[in-house]
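Aim 2, interim progress: modelling of the magnesium ion-bound target.
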Amino acid sequence: MTAPAIAYNFAYLDEQTKRMIRRAILKGIAVPGYQVPFASREMPMPYGWGTGGVQVTAACLVPEDRLKVIDQGADDTTNAVSIRRFFQRTAGVAVTEATADATVIQTRHRIPETPLTEGQILVYQVPIPEPLRFLEPRETETRKMHELEEYGLMHVKLYEDIARHGQIATAYAYPVRVEGRYVMDPSPIPKFDNPKLTANPAIQLFGAGREQRIYALPPYAEVVSLDFEDHPFQATKAAHDCDLCGAKVSYLDEVITDDAGGRMFVCSDTDFCAGRRARGLIGRLGGDQKSSKTFANSFQGIWPGTEGAP
Amino acid sequence: MTAMERIAMTDQPLLRVDGLTKRYGPRIGCLDVSFDLYPGEVLGIVGESGSGKSTLLSCLAGHLQPDLGRVAYDGRDVLAMSETERRRLGRTDWAYVHQNPRDGLRMGVSAGGNVGERLMAIGARHYGEIRDKAQDWLARVEIAADRIDDRPSAFSGGMQQRLQIARNLVTAPRLVFMDEPTGGLDVSVQARLLDLLRGLVRDLGLSVIIVTHDLAVVRLLAHRLMVMKSGRVVEQGLTDQVLDDPQHAYSQLLVSSVLQV
Ligand SMILES: Nc1ncnc2c1ncn2[C@@H]1O[C@H](COP(=O)(O)OP(=O)(O)OP(=O)(O)O)[C@@H](O)[C@H]1O
Ligand SMILES: [Mg+2]
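Predicted structure of the complex, ligand included:
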């Protein structure tokens, strides 16, 4: 990478701000799942674009890092591309799409399929950090509930789900309990990804810009998805194989291919899918070597995820 | 067994209140209040508006920190407890019924969820059992089974109040605080609610402290009565005694003004 053209501070934020954010991160790692307040800075992008995650990434990056940015699992969506470019410009770091090669991965809505390893940092963009917010809007009260471990309300939420839908219908941002202590919102990842949260060798950091909160999971933290004895947690995905790479175990996006009911299922993790196809693993429709999202995009106007911000 | 027999059987008060005082700056909330409450006993608190009834109840329930005095529940010093302990007590042994059901219910949660919350708060993790219990309690407060998944906002005021009562009693508390539980309701609805309350109190052997403006409520529910004025207790005794033969001039006024209605 060439050096940044304009005289930004490395990774945009000034050193004092980065120190402040690092302190919040360290505190978050020391108290897994606890939401640490921090003074969120204005970033040159709107809140919905992951300013919390961007600030955490900025505070973590060193010049030797290799950065990967994904949005809904894809490296090539607008949001991912613009954040990646932002750090290329302001930090001059190397970038990659390969999960295994990345040292820092910023993500929105997914955990990569390829297992993470020690030394990697996964940074989540978080819109609403407070898992109790849904039922208790008062911030003073939710803080007290965390402090006193009064988490009955989380099960009220799940109860309501079952009462209304016959099962726990919460499919994203499925609440978890960390190290037997704090209840945490894992950001809007599909619950399919929840099992990857626990005992993960990587450091997982969560940044909420608008709400000014940082929280964290240190490597190998124990993370349990909340449930009922008679309605146990289930990590679900579409009951299909990827039509491009044939994977049976990856999280799939459903793509409508025509207006006559045609549809296909493709890996939401583009790097995972491309890697498999490069190794000659081919699904039902998978001769094409384009990324799964690009492939999906070729069906005009049918992939809402490409627009980036929520 | 009558309440008096029950009281006679136990020598230990459930709640001992001694010299309880709460000021709001220069203004008196309640002043030097002392009384004992025995298991199974219902204590009525009456007095004009601003006489300190709600202040006293809030101090007892741990919602307000009194300036002076002692409160012992079942031999334990309530004011010396950690907040965690006190809030736990508030979810298990104690219950608090607010005058306005909106203050005591979660309006965005179904009736079943409202009743189930206290169960889940103390560790219930079996959906089917929680739901069965909620169903049972809705029936006990005369809410039709098919309303279990409706939100309280779709309920009438009387139904909301009954739901609040079910939500509070589902964990079988021993001590229930009620602040004007029939306050905002129509007279006919009040009467039905009172009937229901009386049955529950008797069946469950609850100890109750009930604040009210309404001497009819007191006569129907309370074994003992406390009359408050300007933050102080001016008279206390057996309900019938106080109502039929009030000693303090203010109690006499209170009773006569009601009798004139
Ligand atoms: N939060 C507060 N701040 C200041 N003064 C208060 C506060 N709450 C109550 N008071 C005062 O304390 C006194 C007792 O009030 P309290 O609400 O306990 O009376 P009450 O008997 O419950 O009246 P009501 O029958 O109208 O409900 C009143 O003079 C009231 O103005
Ligand atoms: Mg009052």
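The mean pLDDT of chain B is 91. The radius of gyration of chain B is 18 Å.
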